[in-house]
Amino acid sequence: MALRPFIDVPVVQWMEPTPDSQYHGTAVAWDGGRYIYWLRGYGTNWFRRYDVYGDTHQYLPPAPWGAFQGAMLAPDPSRGRLWAIQGNGGTGFAYYDLSSFAWASVASLPAASSWGSWIVHTCSSLHSGADDDHIYYAPANGSAALYRYSVSGNSFTALASAPAALGAGSVGVWVYNYDPDKILVIRGGVSRDIYLYSVSGNSWSTYSYKPAVFDFYTGTHAVYDPDANHVYICLNEGYRYIYRLDLAAGEMEPFCRLPLPYYREARRLALVKVGGCKFLYVFRGYEYAPLAVWRIPVYF
Q1: What domain count does the chain have?
Q2: Theoretical Cys-Cys bridge with 188: which of 109, 138, 170, 297, CB 3.0 to 4.6 Å?
Q3: Predicted pLDDT at 1
């Protein structure tokens, strides 16, 4: 008798919970190696890292400001940094040096960061020939504005505005293996719109996908898988589902269901590759137990 091969549903694994409660402003980013770095949020400057090898959290030097809704981290492997915005209606902008374990503040944001704010770095270490000098910043929170920060000049330039105001749950991801000229932008603000911003053309277009039936809002976050050209998306707070957007097909498909709902305006997703294996990590973003961190193997 021959056994028929099959693919089981994704297995959701419970990892070491965070040592501190999560909340609005919890923001995570993978460094491309051993660690997921995370801001705790909740108005604190607490900063940690999680060891994906040892399943352990570690305390690090605090951020220059307290992080709350709209806080975000963006990796910069070219410089060995993490760029960070504070959220909380503030204009704090800084980077964390991964080798010196030290924070440095840079030019203040041109508009306050709050609900739905995001940053994207077009890093040449991720895609050869990319403009490594620039970081893109959207304040969202009812604004359609977009800005570009020059690392060498330590200054911001205003760019073309989005087709409509961005709101809570907005997020931008650079889809560099799909199109290195494009940043995919989930509009948020109780909208199902998704846009593409052209870096070279300083212009916006609407990204069409199906089925477009869900309105993104507080709690939405997204992370890009450059190998498969997929974007993993968590929905609004209070949901348990992770969806996956196939960029080439323009199809939104279900990926997995978590054991418990996730909450708050948390940048909770990190896609990690270790030893040829790929995992999606999810920080729950909730201030009450369990202070969950989940890991889902990505094998299809």
Answers
A1: 1
A2: 170
A3: 45
- Please give the structure tokens belonging to residue 123: 């890093």
Structure tokens at 119: 């940053």
| Within a domain: 63 | yes
Q: What pTM value is reported for the model?
A: 0.95
Tens digit of pLDDT for each residue in 196-249?
A: 999 999 999 999 999 999 999 999 999 999 999 999 999 999 999 999 999 999
Residue pLDDT, tens place only, 44-60:
999 999 999 999 999 99
- Any domain includes 261: yes
Structural domain harbouring 87: 13-297
Judge whether 151 and 94 are in contact, CB under 8 Å: no
**Residue-level pLDDT at 7:** 53
Residues in the chain with pLDDT values less than 70 = 1-9
**What was the pLDDT predicted at 10?**
72
> Does the residue 109 lie in any domain?
yes
Which residues sit opposite 81 in a β-bridge?
76, 97
The C-alpha atoms of residue 178 and residue 85 are separated, in whole angstroms, by 26
User: Which phi and psi (to 5°) does residue 180 adopt?
Assistant: -65, -10
DSSP code per residue over 236-279: STT--EEEEEETTTTEEEEEEE-SS---SS-B-EEEEEETTEEE
For 207, other C-beta atoms within 10 Å of its C-beta total 18
Flag whether 3 is in a domain.
no
Query: What are the percentages of helix, strand and coil residues in the chain, rounded to 5?
Result: 0, 40, 60
229-240 exposure pattern, b = at least 16 Cβ within 10 A, e = fewer: bbbbbbbbbebe
91: CATH: 2.120.10.80
